[in-house]
Amino acid sequence: MSQGLKICSSILATVLSVALTGCSREQESDAPIAENQPTASQERNLEETQGIVLLRGLPTLGTSDGVAIVELDPEAENFGEILEEREVTGFDAPLHHLYYSPSGRLYSTGLDPKCSLAEVGLSRDSNGNPVINSVDCLDTGGQQVGEDIMWHTV
After folding, report:
1. Cα–Cα distance for residue pair 89/145, rounded to 1 Å
2. CA distance 70 to 81
3. What does the pLDDT look like over 59-73, one tens digit per residue?
4. pTM, entire model
5. Cβ–Cβ under 8 Å, residues 120 and 134
6. Which side of the chain, N or C, has fewer Cβ within a 10 Å radius?
């Protein structure tokens, strides 16, 4: 066996023994589990399971276009529910695609020439939950924003 192969085998054996030792250890704790202690699902960041979506209203159902925050975790009790919604009215066509800028601001392109680019204002309420504050059409000087947005530093 070559010297390089012996070294690699030795390193691999060490890594495996450390990994197996870590897996075989049981958690040692004398403290009783409190009844009000949060479960693993309660400790996770619930925002990780939420998504911002664009809604297309259907006049036959009496719904309108908008922006919403939806629960997307299939294991959550409120899966598919709209947690926050902001209507976008006054346009013939809906907003189309969402884009986060490098600075963290949220923008949407629109299919209506009157609002081909909008900024979606996001913040948090007093409990830390995400809130949609506004959807503001931006003045593009008569230019139509297309399908995609690319960010550039000049």
Report:
1. 19
2. 6
3. 888 888 999 999 999
4. 0.63
5. yes
6. C
